[in-house]
Amino acid sequence: MHRTGELYEQYRTMEQQRETASLGMWIFLSTEVLFFGGLFMTYTLNRSTYPDIFSEASKTIKLSWGAINTVVLIGSSLTMAMAVWASQAGRKKALTWFLIATLVLGTVFLGIKSIEYHDKYVEHHIPGWNFQFEPGADAATNAHTQLFFSLYFGMTGLHALHMIIGAGLLIWLVKESVKGRFTPEYNTPVENIGLYWHFVDIVWIFLFPLLYLIDRH
Amino acid sequence: MSEHHIVSPKIYFTIFGILMICTFLTVAAAEVDLNRYFSGLNIIVALTIAVFKASLVVLFFMHGKYSPKRTQLVIIASVFWLAIMLFMTMSDYVTRPWS
């Protein structure tokens, strides 16, 4: 199948064809909102039940890594948006470079995330048998801080999984853009993977204050 | 149906700048004890900034502002469903005197 920007028979105009592809992506993203929503619901409930414990546990996460990663990820959203622009403007070389920049920034984000996970491993903050919030912590503190760290790993883990899938999609986009497949007439994959990438960015925009910034003062 | 809208790089860079300022503000606000003025003010400020940032991403990076009405309806619907889940579940939990 050669998708080079021709009008398919079920559509009346190119504009309608393009909007349909975008609408489909948005409907998928609305299911993603609810997919992450379940975790945000669990977080809201547990934080409102154990506000002090969540505050204590949050302070053990390094704020600097989270802040740097926020900048890195929003930066990758900018390069992704610029990639969409390059594809619309027919700048094929620029498109490839913006896609590569997005991929690099996404990889940097995952690298920093793995450093953070390793820190938590060393500190015995991974929920399970070897979990210990701090030396001599009582059973209730250990149990309730594990709730926080379960949510920390669950939420950032699901987010990281989305990033890994996004990175895979970006590699494919780079490959296709090098072949010169995307033109101002046909750039639906760039636009839709762009939407996905920005969605993952939005999830992080909420995860950052909720996990890293509880009562930092 | 509107002509396909191409958002200019200038807008993208401006939005990026605002997002960076907001990221700085949210970290700065978290370092200050706002709760002594009003209980829970810290989380309210943090979430307000997050919602503002997310709105900018949806409207400009994701072209929500330039999308057709039916796409905008899907965007609003997804937020609305999330609100139903959070609001209905929490209104149940906070009104249980026996727990």
N- to C-terminal distance of chain A: 58 Å
CATH uppermost class of chain A: Mainly Alpha
| Proportion of beta-strand residues of chain B | under 5%
- Major sheet of chain A: size, sense and barrel closure? none
Helical amount among residues of chain A, as a percent range? over 70%
Count up the helices of chain A. Answer: 6
Average predicted confidence as pLDDT of chain B: 92
| Oligomer status | heterodimer
Mean pLDDT, all residues of chain A: 95
Helix content of chain B: 55-70%
Which superfamily, in CATH terms, is the homologous superfamily of chain A? Cytochrome c oxidase, subunit III, four-helix bundle
Number of helices of chain B: 3
- Overall radius of gyration of chain A: 21 Å
Identify the overall geometry of chain B. flat
Helix and strand run of chain B: HHH
Supply the CATH architecture of chain A. Up-down Bundle
Helix/strand order of chain A, N-terminal first = HHHHHH
Whole-number tally of structural domains of chain B: 2
> What is the number of independent domains of chain A?
1
Number of strands of chain B: 0
Which runs of chain B of at least 5 residues are low in confidence (pLDDT < 50)? none
What does this protein structure show overall?
The complex is a heterodimer of chains A (217) and B (99). Chain A has 217 residues and is mostly helical. Chain A has one domain: Cytochrome c oxidase, subunit III, four-helix bundle (Four Helix Bundle (Hemerythrin (Met), subunit A), Up-down Bundle). Chain A is built from six helices and no strands. In chain A, helix 1 (14-49) runs parallel beside helix 6 (188-212). Chain A starts with 13 loop residues before the first helix and ends in a 5-residue tail after the last helix. The mean pLDDT of chain A is 95. Chain B folds into two domains: 1-67; 68-99. The termini of chain B are far apart. Chain B has helices at 9-31, 41-61, 69-93. Chain B is flat, with a radius of gyration of 18 Å. The mean pLDDT of chain B is 92. In chain B, helix 1 runs antiparallel to helix 2 (41-61).
